[in-house]
Here is the input.
Amino acid sequence: MTMHLGPRGTPAYRRARRRQRLSQRISNFLAIDAMSPRDVYCGLLWYGKFKGWNPKFPLAAFREICGAWPRPQDKEGEPVRPPIELEQWIINNGPKRKKGKHG
Here is the structure.
C-alpha cells in the first residue's frame, strides 16, 4: 500500500520518505539475518557471476554482512539467484562505479 506523502520537496515529504527508506532497510536486514550463511554466500556468488564482478566479491560482501569470512561449509552450495532483500542490499552496498576523468 502506497502512502500519500504530500507535495514533493517539502520537509514533511522528505521526513516521510526517510522513514520509509529506513523501514525498508531494517526489514531487508532482518530478512537477510534470517537466511542461513550458505544461502547468503550462494546468493552473493550467483549475483557476482551474473554481473561479471571480481570473484572475491562474494567473500568481501559476506564478511560485511555476517561479520566473518565464510566457513568452508558455507561455500559448498551451488550459486542460486538471491532473494530480493539480498539483491537490494547488494545494489545499495555493493561495488560502486567510479567516475572517469571527464565525469
